Amino acid sequence: MSSIVHSQAADIPYNMTTTGFDMPGFRVVANLGVVRGVVVRSRSVFGTIGAGLQTLLGGNISLFTELAERTRQQAFDTMLVQADMAGADAVIGIRYDATELMAGVTEVLCYGTAVRLEPLNS
To answer: Taking the model in full, what pTM does it have?
Structure first.
């Protein structure tokens, strides 16, 4: 599968995602299985140097914070595309995992369960 970028967002809105195992106001009518988004990123030499300079001042290292946030967002969006392709209305039980594959190279995994829902009042 090709890499999914943020501009290729799925039709599943963010408010239909949760770290919980149910969606308030809805009943799960179909479990479509685990969906995931995987991103592997490396730090650039310039970014590493800039972040190194930020560590001298202490506090938040914004270069790494921004890289981590963009990477997590891309993994999340990729997971949503997988859920959309599976025919899901929502994703429940969402989790993240990160693994350093080698120095400066990190894999970020976002996964959850794709489900179809119906409103409780129907």
So the answer is: 0.78
Are 109 and 96 contacting, i.e. CB atoms less than 8 angstroms apart? yes
pLDDT in tens, the chain (122 residues): 445 444 455 688 999 999 999 999 999 999 999 999 999 887 655 555 555 555 656 566 677 778 889 899 999 999 999 999 999 999 999 999 988 878 778 889 999 999 999 999 86
* CATH number for the domain that contains residue 92: 3.30.110.70
Are 114 and 32 a contacting pair, CB within 8 Å? Answer: yes
CA distance 101 to 110: 16
- Domain ranges, residue 98: 6-119
